[in-house]
Amino acid sequence: MSKERYIEAKQRWAEKQKARGVTARATASRERLPPGQKLTTGFPVLDLGVQPEIPLAQWTLTLSGLVTKPAVLDWAAFNALPQVEDTSDFHCVTTWSKYDCRWGGVAFTTLYELVQPKPEARFVYFTGYDGYSTNVALEQCLDDDVLIATSFDGQPLSRAHGGPARAILPKLYAWKGSKFVRGLTFLAEDKPGFWEVRGYSNTADPWTEDRYG
Ligand SMILES: Nc1nc2c(c(=O)[nH]1)N[C@H]1C(S)=C(S)[C@@H](COP(=O)(O)O)O[C@H]1N2
Ligand SMILES: [Mo]
User: Fold this and answer.
1) For the segment 147-173, what is each residue's pLDDT rounded down to a tens digit?
2) Minimum CA distance residue for ligand 1 atom 16
């Protein structure tokens, strides 16, 4: 069934349910939707007012800091790494959530194995081509749903949503995933990023509404 027909069918089903006076199944979504969040079916765009244009021929991802094998990957080298797909939910601190985002790209763990962080590395500082930055504990980056995504829903990641490549960390509020990602620096000491120095939470757990401070 095509996506359009599937959506139409679901819509008809919903209308029928409504006509019958049947209310939506709240239980599943209540368990899936973190507190204080509202589900959106669109995909809002949030950035710093700049969406840098990075030609693929000039794009690089720099992996540096406390690592045994620092690396600067160009587009070809990055795409030659094992590719994964992961579908996850997306929670923005401004209270919208989006379900079932299908991301494709390179798992964080693949990059971890490539550069071999030193034992003292405990934090990762992500930077973006737009001047953005954000910090995450290394341990959280090692979850199997964390990736540097270059595709969304089977299509190349659009510039609006952070293309050519962005970080995705589904278990944390979405500001922890840098769009237009440019570098990952492995650090011994934590270093607050763009929003973290402006009062956003350092740990950003949607399930405890760990939004600010
Ligand atoms: N480089 C960069 N990454 C960023 C941001 C940004 O402004 N610049 N905004 C963050 C915030 S607050 C959110 S909610 C998500 C939004 O991603 P989207 O625009 O694809 O919805 O990107 C995050 N990553
Ligand atoms: Mo956000």
Assistant:
1) 999 999 999 999 999 999 999 999 999
2) 46
